[in-house]
Design goal:
Blueprint (H helix, E strand, L loop, with lengths): L1 H33 L3 H13 L5 H13 L3 H14 L4 H11 L13 H10 L4 H24 L3 H34 L2 E4 L3 E5 L8 E6 L3 E8 L2 E5 L5 E5 L3 E3 L4
Antiparallel strand pairs: 1-4, 1-7, 2-3, 4-5, 5-6
């Protein structure tokens, strides 16, 4: 028992020291950034990431550093990672927009139907976890309404409790469905950023097939499948093709 307590204390101490060290690195990185020493700031932020302390703030600041040194691919990559962790942050969206304006590729996105746009708005109203928490809260409300219905004597009060319970259960089931659909959408979406200055996209996963189009640093693609180091990608206008995986970095890799 004593050994377990000692191990627990050591783990807590280690975590405490790790957080303190990362706070010091973050503060120092901010100072480097303000002095224009962007390479040193990048080194500090990368040290924080190496300790598995991922946050929107670290990725956002990394994006800012790379933007300052005109490194467009990494800049967009880290802004996108920050946005993945904090999807409603207007400052991240704003800076990402500036970085995207520096790209060479101007790809027109395939327009979505009104139904598709409405679906995306509803499903992304909350995060997957938030939908799940809402479902739990609504189920608890349903249970409370059921218990209230059981113990009440007034017919009117019973009717209100019954309606509240049915309404809560229905919304709870919808929330579970929304959470599931968003999770499936997340799994099917595998975005990546082109890191090479220029990469030729082939019709097949080999070096001898026809080149169908060319992409440049900073362009966002969606990976559809992988085969022997080659990755099939789709770009915003719907075109698909194959490129070597070494030319891109997956945004969801943490």
């Amino acid at each position: 028992m004593k050994m377990k307590k000692i191990l627990l204390l050591m783990c807590l101490l280690s975590l405490s020291l790790g957080f303190s060290q990362n706070e010091a690195l973050f503060s120092e990185a901010t100072d480097f950034y303000n002095k224009g020493e962007y390479a040193k700031a990048i080194a500090n932020y990368e040290q924080i990431l190496e300790s598995d302390q991922h946050s929107a703030a670290v990725y956002f600041n990394l994006g800012n550093c790379y933007y300052k040194i005109n490194s467009i691919g990494p800049s967009i990559y880290y802004y996108e990672k920050a946005l993945l962790l904090s999807p409603n942050d207007s400052e991240i969206k704003n800076n990402l927009g500036y970085a995207q304006n520096m790209r060479l590729d101007a790809i027109e996105e395939v327009p979505k139907t009104e139904i598709s746009q409405a679906y995306d708005k509803v499903i992304n109203l909350f995060t997957c976890n938030q939908w799940a928490y809402l479902a739990v809260a609504l189920v608890i409300l349903f249970v409370l309404a059921y218990l209230t219905y059981y113990f009440l004597r007034s017919a009117n009060h019973k009717r209100i409790a019954l309606i509240t319970g049915i309404f809560s259960l229905s919304l709870g089931l919808v929330s579970i469905l929304m959470s599931y659909l968003q999770q499936e959408q997340y799994k099917n979406d595998d975005p990546a950023i082109v890191f090479s200055k220029e990469v030729k996209v082939s019709s097949e996963p080999n070096g001898s097939s026809d080149i169908i189009f060319t992409l440049h640093e900073g362009t966002k693609v969606n990976v559809l499948e992988e085969l022997d180091g080659w990755e099939k990608i789709r770009i915003a206008d719907g075109q698909t093709g194959w490129l070597l995986g070494e030319n891109i970095k997956h945004i969801k890799d943490f």
